[in-house]
Design a protein that fits this description.
single chain; about 170 residues; alpha+beta; Bactericidal permeability-increasing protein, domain 1; 3-stranded antiparallel β-sheet; 4 helices
């Protein structure tokens, strides 16, 4: 009986230690699954292209099972988010955000800051050369997104919910 109690106590101690490791670390960082990963040689989950060779903004998704997928365009990211996944629910979605002073019509291959998708502001309606699918830009600040629309009569700024609704309408029209 005493040995059973020690084993049970040791098991609970291990469970509590494991749970303690699931929260934020002492320096305030979130779990690794909830942080964006840097680009290396990842292939786009939808089209198979090398993600780092495509123009920013790019995206990445982390699923419940720990699977992380990368996308060379936000259009491909939206395709992935709209499909059922065998990897479980989505636990984090990240997008690269454009720098406020960058030309929204130019190609930008250098790495950009990653933010949670729900914190970004999206610009649609700007034509970009060399972009597969519908061009979607992402910005960390609403003001930067609004500045990017200047001179583009069809451009508009959306939050993530608006972007997903726009994408569904676009897909339904095809």
């Amino acid at each position: 009986m005493a040995q059973t109690m020690r084993c049970a106590s040791a098991a609970w101690t291990l469970v509590l230690l494991a749970l303690a490791g699931c929260g934020p670390s002492d320096d305030g960082d979130a779990r690794p699954l909830h942080r964006a990963a840097e680009l290396a040689d990842q292939e786009d989950e939808v089209c198979g292209m090398l993600v780092r060779t495509q123009s920013a903004p790019r995206g990445q998704v982390v699923h419940r099972d720990g699977s992380r997928f990368f996308f060379c365009s936000l259009g491909d990211l939206l395709v992935h988010l709209g499909a059922p996944s065998p990897h479980g629910r989505t636990v984090a979605v990240f997008v690269e955000v454009m720098k406020p002073d960058e030309n929204p019509m130019a190609s930008h291959l250098d790495q950009h800051p990653w933010v949670l998708a729900e914190d970004a502001f999206y610009v649609i309606g700007i034509e970009r050369q060399g972009i597969m699918g519908e061009p979607v830009l992402a910005y960390a600040e609403r003001g930067a997104a609004e500045s990017a629309t200047q001179g583009h009569t069809d451009a508009r700024v959306l939050d993530l919910g608006g972007l997903r609704d726009w994408w569904k309408e676009l897909e339904a029209a095809r």
